[in-house]
Amino acid sequence: MSKSTTSTTQPDPRAEKGSLAAFKGLLPFLRPYRRRFILAAIALVFAAGATLAIPYAFKQMIDHGFAPAAGQRNIENVNETFLALFAVASVLAVATAARFYTVSWLGERVTADIRGAVYGHVVTQSPEFFETTQTGEVLSRITTDTTLIQAVVGTSISVALRNMLLFLGGLVMLFVTSPKLSSIILGLLVLVVVPIVLFGRRVRALSRASQDRIADASAMAGEILNAMPTVQSFTHEHIESARFGKSVEGAFSTAMKRIRARSLLTMIAIVLVFGTIVFVLWLGAHAVLEGSMTGGDLGQFILYASIVAGSIGALSEVMGEAQRAAGATERLLELLSVKSPIQNPAKPAALPARTANGAALALNDVTFSYPSRPETAALGHLSLQIKPGETVAVVGPSGAGKTTLFQLFLRFYDPQAGSITLDGVDIRQLDLHTLRDAIGIVPQDTVIFSADAMENIRYGRAGATDEEVIAAAKMAAAHEFIERLPQGYKSFLGERGVRLSGGQRQRIAIARALLKNPPLLLLDEATSALDAESERLVQSALEAAMVGRTTVIIAHRLATVQRADRIIVMEDGKIVETGTHSSLVALGGIYANLAALQFHNVHVTH
Questions:
Q1: Residue 164, exposed/middle/buried by CB under 10 A (0-12, 13-18, 19+)?
Q2: Please, what sign has the CA dihedral across residues 267, 270, 273, 274?
Q3: With respect to CATH, is domain 20-337 assigned 2.60.120.200?
Q4: N or C: which end of the chain has fewer CB within 10 A?
Q5: What are the residue ranges in the chain where pLDDT is below 70?
Q6: Which residue spans within 173-214 are E strands per DSSP?
Q7: At what angle do helices 157-177 and 179-226 cross, to 10 degrees?
Q8: CB atoms within 10 A of CB 308
Q9: Global pTM?
Q10: How many Å apart are CA 351 and CA 338, to the nearest integer?
């Protein structure tokens, strides 16, 4: 039932190595906030400096505060040391708070910018993108993956830099305190890097796989929730629950592999780091006993060693988070790098001034295959001229290419051969908004947004007044049923219009198209969901709306196309018959057979 995609089911092998380089792709989102980063860096330096000053204060207290036979001077030294410690703690508190506020702001701001950029990029993609990408996967990228990036930008980068400063500063002070012990501890600590690097690679691969499994589960859930009436009507609730449960368990299993690898990494790092420190401190204790070090020196050395060890442990933790976020960054950058095959021209052409009612539309030897089915021609060498103000009906069996025509008129796809012109201008030379603003469409699958009736109709023209919305609703025979809703035009219609009948949803869509008032109107089975009475009302409204504009109608029910100026009969992506209703019936071809079947059935029914 669900479509799988390469991006969600197979980890990108390129992500297995050097994935931290993916963070370079975040630079365009970080550059606008350079000043904030500078402020955070200043606060970071002060906080790290204050932390590194604490061991030195303790050394002074031990060596000068507890020196034998110093008397009153010892008390003064202790008092001065603790006053200095309080001052250092105050600096540390202010700097840490400033750092936390600044980097948290950066994390939230940059994440919001990324979410906006990804969503804004996705909504400009052509339908070809959505043939191979599930909306649930995109939502997972916008939510889950950006949250990981937020953690890195808003916390991990700051923590990493802070611990890097503490590591370097602590290392320098270790050598100042005791070069001999520091050389020993440094040599042993180098060995810690090897397991961190080895296990870090595995954690990175597992992190990417874990996020992919979560995206799979999210995509599956989104698909099923959008099809809930179908699922329930076929009593597949338990089957779909089991399918989702299996997907969730797969994500859990992958996550546990990642957690086990990270746990092992943490354990090894702690054992090696603290084992090294304990060994060196044992050497230091013997140096104090021998008189080659003071007690203050050893205390200072212990605190600096603890700072260095703690910073290494924190860096290994941050590395794990960074690797997860690097995988998330790669997926978001992949999404942002997708280019729609439907692009605005570099220098868009302008439509000529309209001299007639309606738009002139022409297809010139058009051949088209859907990207997902390149071997099958949906349209083959199709030519068609539609005059301004003309009403043309397109009929034919399912799969004949009728809806494909509308997809091409709106430039959701470009034909592989031939051209389509609007008022004599190739639509590929028009700005997409200029083209689509000239076209109104009533689709077969009506879309109702989670808003009230007024806003759903106003979607046709964002700046329309309430009076214009109501006028369009009256033309579409929607006014009466809207007025009967609990809050009238302010009534919330429910997600996907669940509070309306099929016919009511279709009349909302018709009102939306009429409000737009375009020169070219496309009607795709616009009355298919209406009962006989509503169809009569809407048909008369549509006939009034067709006056003064070009209209192309797709219909299976031939009663709705009998009064068209011209009827085009399609089969297998080609035009096989053209004429009026009476001439095509007299021809005795495909249209005549369709008409005989439908009107005979109507006669028998009545």
A1: middle
A2: negative
A3: no
A4: C
A5: 1-21, 64-74, 77, 131-132, 134, 189, 191-201, 204, 208, 320, 494-498, 526-531, 533-534, 537-538, 540-541, 544-545, 559, 598-606
A6: none
A7: 170
A8: 25
A9: 0.65
A10: 30
